[in-house]
Amino acid sequence: MEGFKAKLRVAIVVILATWIVVAALYGLLKPISNGCVMTYMYPTYIPIPTPKNVSAEKYGLHLYHEGWKRIDYKEHLKQLSGIPVLFIPGNGGSYKQVRSLAAECERAYQVGPLERTHYQESILTFEDGGTKMDFGGFQLPNQYVSKMDWFAVDLEGEHSAMDARIIEDHTEYTVYAIHRILDLYKESQDAREKDGAATPRNLPKSVILVGHSMGGFVARAALIHPRLRKSAVETLLTLSSPHQSPPLALQPSLGHYYARVNEEWRQGYEIQTTRAGIYISDPLLSHVVVISVSGGYNDYQVRSKIESLDGIVPPTHGFMISSTGMKNVWLSMEHQAILWCNQLVVQVSHTLLSLIESRTGQLAVDPRKRLSIFARMLHSGIPQSFNWMMQPQLPSQLTDTSKKDNKAATGSKEVLSYGCPSNVPWNDNGLEKDLYVQTTTVTVLAMDGKRRWLDIQKLGSNGKNHFVLVTNLAPCYGVRLHLWPEKSKTILDFPPRKRVIEVTSKMVHIPSGPAPKQIEPGSQTEQPPPSAIFWLAPKDMQGFKFLTISVAPRPTVSGRPPPAASMAVGQFFNPKEGQREFSPKSMLLSTYSPEDLFLKEDHPLAFNLSFAVSLGLLPVSLSVKTAGCGIRNSGLPDDEAGDMENNRLCKLRCFPPLALAWDPISGFHVFPNVYSENIIVDSSPALWGEEGSEKTIVMLLVDPHCSYKTSIAVSVTGAASRFILLFNAQIVGFSIAVVFFALMRQANAWDLDLPIPSVLTVVESNLRMPSSFLFLAIAPILLSLVISLLMSQPLPPLASFTLVSVICYLIANGFIILLVLISQLVFYATAIVHVFFKTRSQGWEANFIFSFLNWFISLSSSFFSLKVVRVLRVNPLLVTAMAATTLGSFVHPALGLFILLIYHALACHNSLCNFLTASFRSHARGRQFINYENSSDESQEFASKIEDCHPNSPSSPISFMDTQLELFNHRHGLLILHLLAAFMFVPSLAAWFQRIGTSQTFPWLLDSILCTGVILHGTLSSKPEFNSLFTFPSILSYEMRLNIIYLIAGYYAFLSGLALAPFRVFYVMAAVGFVMFALKIFYKRKWEKEGQRFFKKKHSHRH
Question: Is the dihedral of CA 74, 78, 80, 86 positive or negative?
Fold first, then answer.
């Protein structure tokens, strides 16, 4: 690599890659505050004995018991009478991780269901097969009639995310554990009958599976296992489990196993028919409901994208929900924290207990009912799409006059379903007085027992404006809202034809920040954060003249501090007035100069902030500072008035800002008390095969009584962290493509009878603009778009998709350059040391240690004189291929690849030593020619030492130097390629070492075959003259050489990276190896027939 521009180009790429990685590590290694509350328990783990007719397994099964008292295990197993739940730990997990879920589930059973609220509930409504299905009619139980018996499998902490064989073994044992649990209930009942203590009770027919991380995928694999009993599992809940693809998509067999399981699941929800279309049976998995819970953006190990059930489970049988949008949770949490976060554990426990039918004491049989219960218990009332805000919130039956009259006459429950139940105490006559609001903004600062009237026509601009209300008052108990056709004293004054509609239960619950603290009893507190949102669209208010907000009175308690502050702020506003859009350019520029947005007093309550680039890729730091709140004179000294007004007095008047974010993948996110917050969503934008808008919509709710200075800036470390998390698999695939493109350049140089350049030189040349970069970086991106069109796949957003792919390609080049530089440094340092000691070895012949080494070598000469050893020494290529293939096929593929790497490394070292020795000899001869008369003896002695070290060296040192340097460059490129291949098997090798001495089995056949192909490629192409031996069939009169094959392989690796499936690069590596092996056999036979003149030799003067 020569020239300033070339060095500058390499330096820029390396600096860019290093800067992104360092910034990402800085962001990822920072401690995370997730807001979770720790769960406490008194655990006892009861081992489940294995029957005598079953062979002992290395895994184990345990039953959890909550309590600090010592119990008799046998007697406890006799009393099994609950609903069985089996917990499956994830990668490297322990069966003891079940303790939080099991302990909280026991507490939930003892305490009873959660307190009923009157917020809007989530209802699943969608179309299935053209039929509209509404799952909102099922009611939750009033009390729990049966408890949960929690079991857990002990999988010895094996790393199932790293090896497909481990997943297969875990699946086998999970199927056994399910059957063992069901049989255990039968044994328990038989034991009670034998003791005369049995009570008539139905035995459970199915087991609920709860899987964490890879345990969720193991559970899905167990459900399609051929030996699993029919209907043994009907409910599956996964926590932070990857469903679409493995989190480490590096091992080919692991990716293949995932694809096979997912394909069987897709077929499991299809009606079974013959080839002629004749009906055979219902879908095999029609009774199975699957719920996937993701940890959100704080889960660095598994992203929400691969936790999705899209394309695997139909929406009629399952859904994915993020913990950020889960009712009563609203938090993002780390991968392990999802198991102990009390907010989530409590909600999950009550959800599972709600699945039990009061009549039978068993799980609900109807999958629609189970799915409805999951939706009601986990989903919040706020839908997962921002369009909810812009659409009517009330059904047409309530707003359509003709239908409304009919409903009122018949006493339909649907009209009353949005009102408060009759058992909630409320007396309209107890309200003190009516207030008539004349402004578009209405404020409630206390529970004053007043009803506020708002003229919809006057304040709502004749039905054009929306109405929004944020409050911390509880619906039905603290506040009620009604739509009135006319003004009146009571609801009973209207005839059935003109009914007053109560819409209180349309309030949706949101998480509130920490409650304000009173400094002293009787003092005024800060405004509390809102805990509910109420929204009405213009169509919801059509046909009505007034909207009333009735606030209940709160009695004072003598001798005690007054209760916490109450608030409600509502406003009629036009959503277009609060719209703010941030273009990609403004977002990128905000990294240096934040975007400022000043909100004056009487601004809209809701601001719609639209970001053109997803906040899952470019997170922003949102700062909302109070600039004023209409207080002209605070009564404080001038030097203190400004700060106190903005910090303390304004908090007494204005509620804390609130941000709501929507993402099409991870759903709904809430950020309470947004004074300074990083707004981020767990989306996966700019991916191949994904469509949809990349926009992230953030709704900022701020008090209209105050003015604010809002600052928005893209977080650099957050953006780098998200980039590495989302596209690390893409970078791995691109790295393989970069090496293939480098080998292409080297093979092309050989075909053109040019010197073989170094790996660093060809990588730099591939970055040159415009031809090389466009051909190797942009062309594969365009090819992926063409493939999407031909396969009728959705097209990704072109601009962001191209930009992200180019950045990943540059990072991959930077990584390869660093790897090449480090390996070159190691090789040169080792070769220099080796040559130094070699050239001076003759001067040490009198040394005792040297004499001992000579004696040892002569002693072992008898071994090396054996015929087998001599044959192997003459054929090192054969020895390497046999040893590497044997280890890769029967032990582990990584070991076979390591043998190949050693072979490459020794060849590189030998070539470099020859190059340096020849260089020293050339230098010595030059000195000999100059100083021949003065030091001829010393020069001849030094030259003789060189000749002794390399007796077979040719007489032309310059030609020999060039030859050895080309050999080093060629083998160095192969070493880098196969080093990356070996690295991809390292996680699987680590898992293999963990299982040594337990249950070792042969590697997967797919891994062994692909490893053999890679080894064939490494051995057959070990010498550059092999490039001339392989001439592939011509295409369009163009001779196909090895450089074209490398180009195609690079394109395939590039596309594999775009598909986030880097393990597929092994397919093309192995294909190249097998093709070269077949062609070598073919040409060898042809050479025997036609003679040596068949081949066209190149570089023969040097090699």
Answer: positive
Instruction: With CA atoms as reference, report the closest residue to 811 among 717, 731, 882.
Output: 731
DSSP states of 404-456: HHHHHHHT-HHHHTTS--TTS---GGG--EEEEE-SSEEEE-S-B-EEEEEEH
Joined tokens for residue 456: 């919809």
User: Do 903 and 974 touch, CB atoms closer than 8 A?
Assistant: no
Q: Which residues pair with 88 in a beta bridge?
A: 211
Euclidean distance between CA atoms 164 and 162, whole angstroms:
7
Q: What is the dihedral of CA 7, 9, 13, 18, to 10 degrees?
A: 40
SS3 351: helix
Strand 595-599 and strand 707-714: the pairing is: antiparallel
Greatest Cα pair distance, the chain, in angstroms, is 130
How far apart CA 891 and CA 1004 sit, in angstroms, is: 10
- The β-bridge relationship of strands 235-239 and 676-679 is unpaired
Please state the pTM of the whole predicted model: 0.88
* Residue in the structure block whose two tokens are 């692991």: 254
How many Å is the Cα radius of gyration of the chain?
37
The mean pLDDT of 511-518, rounded to a whole number, is: 67
Per-residue H/E/C for 748-761:
HHHHCCCCCCCHHH
Residues 6+ away with beta carbon under 8 Å from 164: 251, 253, 254, 256, 257, 1004
CB 340 within 8 A of CB 100: yes
pLDDT tens profile 906-963: 889 888 888 888 877 776 666 655 554 454 454 454 445 444 444 444 444 447 788 8
Q: Is 251 helix (H, G, I), strand (E, B) or coil?
A: coil
707 in helix, strand or coil? strand
Of residues 757, 763, 761, the one with CA closest to residue 741: 763
Higher pLDDT pick, 671 / 496? 671
- 720 confidence band (pLDDT: 50, 70, 90): very high
d(CA 433, CA 421): 24
CB-neighbour burial class of residue 299 (10 A; exposed 0-12, middle 13-18, buried 19+): buried
